[in-house]
Amino acid sequence: MAELVSTLPPDLHPHCIPHFIRKKYPGLGPVFYLDNWPASYPICAVVDPDVAYQATQQNSLPKHRINKEYIEPFVGKYNMLTLEGRLWKQWRSIFNPSFASGNVINLVPKIVEDCLTFCNTLSMHAEKSDIFSLEEEATKLTIDVIGRVVIDTLLHAQTSQSELVSAFRSQVRWIPDADGLNPFKKYNPVRPFVYWYNTRKMNSILGKVLDDRFASRTANEDLQSSRSSRSIIDLALDNYMNDGSQRSSDKIDPTFKEFAVDQIKLFLFAGHDTTSSTTSYMYHLLSKNPGALHTVRKELDDVLGLDITQGPRILAENPHLLNKLHYSNAVIKETLRFYPPVSSARTGKPGFFLELDGVKYPTEGFLVLICTHALQRGADYWEDPIKFIPERWLVKEGDPLAPVKGTWRAFEHGPRNCIGQELAMIEIKVIMALTLRSFDVSSVYEELDNSAKTGNGSKLTSTNSVEGDMAYQVLLGSAKPVKGMPARVKKRISTAH
Predict the structure, then answer these.
(1) How many CA atoms lie within 13 A of 94 on its CB side?
(2) Closest CA to 412 of 163, 55, 32
(3) Which of 79, 116, 177, 266 is the most buried (most CB within 10 A)?
(4) CA 312 – CA 231 distance, rounded (Å)
(5) DSSP letter at 341?
(6) CB–CB of 49/406 below 8 Å?
């Protein structure tokens, strides 16, 4: 194990390691055990879609306590990611309708507005011709979008600093990175105090936002009910109050408020987690694959028209046009195949065994890890797994390129799948529609001088690559591109294809 790790970048995200274990030991099989004591829990690693189905859908094992240890200090104990049993079912059912595609598509005009601000940011960097952190700018965009669609509030993360955004970003910076496996860094005595301070500030700000939303909602109840593009929190509050018991109250229900604040923090984290990184990687992969970029641009011309200045208006007025962006959708799914945001960590149970080819694998006492990165890059399941081929998502079943069922798990499967996956896909499609025809965005790792460092302090050079890719994932609150994806952007002179 030490020999293997020594061949990889020292700050590589830990969820990538099982993929390289299988490559080094091809006879190991798709279910194996890892004992990383004292750095981590003992792991039962799953790199098989049928076995993953047993753990996440057929039985839906509980989330492992490592999720609580990692996420609860950031978002609170009532978040849907770590809740279990009756409470999880209750709050998932309250928020599910808010994230349904029919509601999310109505939020596209708000997403378009924030994306236009992002276009201004790209224009600024194009004029300066500088190297900038693409992931940083994408994160600001996703925070603005979450503010609009979840709580109908302008956070202005892209244009100014707010107390909420500052507290959020500070909280993220204090989450242990890959070096958090080092107990001296993991148990930094200052961290709990920073968490407490930032949490107190975020809870206060979000609590006031909810109070204001409730007051506005009560005062304009008839108007609110007629609006087609209502925020996620408004719809969730409708579901919570559906029995009518709270209708006469002039204050928001305190239980709902406490749970809702934690969900908003979770949505902020998840948007920062998935959407900003996937957006950055989308630009990275398209810049390395000009044929795919050409095809995306042609699709956008066909669906939105050749006049790119009218694209935002057309999309805001006809958000269902996003459903016609089939190749763009395939690009996003292929990007998520290359760079999955998370792997699922479940808790093994006494007497529960995973089965494969007649062999039973005990789970008691183990963290059952669904190794998404390994599943989505495994040569056992994918044709040319290290090649960026969006077309694999457009072929018919039975084609050699067609994905094997259950191997793509970017949003996980089963009842504990990602509630915000529809919002994430729509947001990235809007970003693609509004930027790809106006700008050339490229990662520029090769331009960094020899003083540039990885998150772990080593020099960032061509030798710090993973399967030939310098934009490997690191653990910085979530799976992020190393060094924040250094990038350059140029305005396109011509849109002719």
Answers:
(1) 22
(2) 55
(3) 79
(4) 21
(5) S
(6) yes
288 vs 249, residue with greater confidence? 288
Which residue carries 């072929």 as its tokens? 395
Per residue in 85-96, pLDDT (tens digit) is 999 999 999 999
Lowest mean pLDDT segment, chosen from 129-143, 224-238, 318-332: 224-238
Residue whose entry in the numeric block shows the structure tokens 């924030």: 114
Q: What is the pLDDT of residue 218?
A: 67
Least confident interval from 216-230, 426-440, 475-489: 216-230
pLDDT in tens, 251-303: 788 888 999 999 999 988 887 778 999 999 999 999 999 999 999 999 999 99
| 8 Å CB contact between 148 and 111 | yes
Query: At CA 188, angle to CA 187 and CA 190, rounded to 5?
Result: 135
CB 150 within 8 A of CB 427: no
Pick left, alpha or beta for residue 414 (phi over 0 → left; psi -120 to 50 → alpha; otherwise beta).
left
Tokens coding 416: 């504990």
Please, are residues 392 and 403 in contact by the beta-carbon 8 Å criterion? yes
Contact 329, 321 (CB under 8 A): no
Query: What is the signed CA dihedral for 313, 319, 320, 324, rounded to 10 degrees?
Result: 60
What span, in angstroms and rounded, lies between the C-alpha atoms of 283 and 298? Answer: 16
Structure tokens at 77: 């104990």
In single-letter form, the type of residue at position 194 comes to V
Give dist(CA 107, CA 426) in Å, integer. Answer: 10
Residue 481: which residues within 8 A CB-CB, separation 6 or more?
A: 134, 135, 277, 280, 281, 284, 339, 443, 471, 472, 473, 474
pLDDT of residue 448: 82
Q: Radius of gyration over alpha carbons of the chain, in Å?
A: 23
Of 421, 389, 410, 394, nearest in space to 327 by CA? 394
Residue type, 110: K
Residues 231/150, Cβ–Cβ less than 8 Å = yes
Evaluate the CA torsion angle 382, 384, 388, 389 in order and state its sign: negative
CA distance 319 to 305: 14
Q: Does residue 39 carry a pLDDT above 90?
A: no
